[in-house]
Amino acid sequence: MEATPPRKPYASDLSDLEWEIVEPFVKQPPGKGKKRTVNIREVLNAIFYINKTGCQWHMLPHEFPDYRHVNYYYCLWRRKGIWDALLDALRRDIRMAEGRDGEPSGAILDSQSVKTDHNGEERGFDGGKQVKGRKRHLVVDTLGLILLVLVTRASIQDRDGGVELCDEVQQKAPRVQKIWADSAYRGELVEYVAKWCRFMLEIVKKPAAQHGFQVHPIRWIVERTLGWLNWYRRLSKDYEKTVDSSETMVKIASIRIMLRRLIADVYPMFNI
């Protein structure tokens, strides 16, 4: 196991058990080539620190590796699909730990509009939410674990983002038989799914007699996931220059949440 340098731990650091789960995904493959000179566990700790606290790359505490090394691996793992592989593996492990099939048969679709930093690309105005920035489109399983995330400019209609995500569900989640969504996805997307997809899209409608806030069946699950993401300050606003990086930051927050959940399910005595 790669040792962590002697320093006071941050709340976002990986525990030994969490590192054992993550290490196979990020360790250097065997063979010829230049050996790493940076502590990869500390690189991950630095990325989780940024994600949790919202600090800038060059403002990383000096106990971590140089921010340029950290950013290099962040981008490298994004290009190689390491974050995606880890996200999918953790979701399967949690589902099986809770007595479910590793792949979901049901999912929930929703979106969240957030403001952006002034340097970001792909920005727009969401007239419904009165937000200038970007929109996060999510598909989660019935445990609230992220299956897919798509980031667009905020002016993109929910149904348009839904079309792209439903196409991805076709490829990535072959067991899905039904997706639930709110009334923003009614109409054209329902017709598209009925014509081109093997699963069913069900719109969860607001009760006619509803006054004020009320929890809606099934839909509350994805709302809870969006609430979980709000624990991570890097996501309180979209600070990323590219939408690829925006999606990756959402995935990293989800990975951190799932690591803790998996430890709580499999090793409950270590749930602190």
In brief:
By secondary structure, the chain is α/β, with parallel strands linked by helices. The chain folds into 2 domains: 16-28 and 35-79, no CATH class; 82-206 and 216-223 and 241-270, Nucleotidyltransferase, domain 5 (2-Layer Sandwich), CATH 3.30.420.
Q: What does the model show?
A:
The protein is built from 8 helices and 6 strands; from the N terminus they run ααααββββαβαβαα. The chain is α/β, with parallel strands linked by helices and 272 residues long. The chain folds into 2 domains: 16-28 and 35-79, no CATH class; 82-206 and 216-223 and 241-270, Nucleotidyltransferase, domain 5 (2-Layer Sandwich). A hairpin with a 4-residue loop joins strand 3 and strand 4 (146-153). It starts with 15 loop residues before the first helix and ends in a 6-residue tail after the last helix.
Report helical residue fraction: 40-55%
Give the DSSP E fraction (strand runs of 2 or more residues).
Answer: 5-15%
Question: Sheet bearing the most strands, described?
Answer: 6 strands, mixed
- Count of alpha/pi helices: 8
CATH architecture of the largest domain: 2-Layer Sandwich
Give the C-alpha Rg.
19 Å
Unreliable segments (pLDDT under 50, ≥5 consecutive)? none
The residue-averaged pLDDT reads 90
Instruction: Report the order of strands and helices.
Output: HHHHEEEEHEHEHH
**CATH hierarchy class name of the largest domain:** Alpha Beta
Count the beta strands.
6
Q: Count up the domains.
A: 2
What is the 3D form? globular
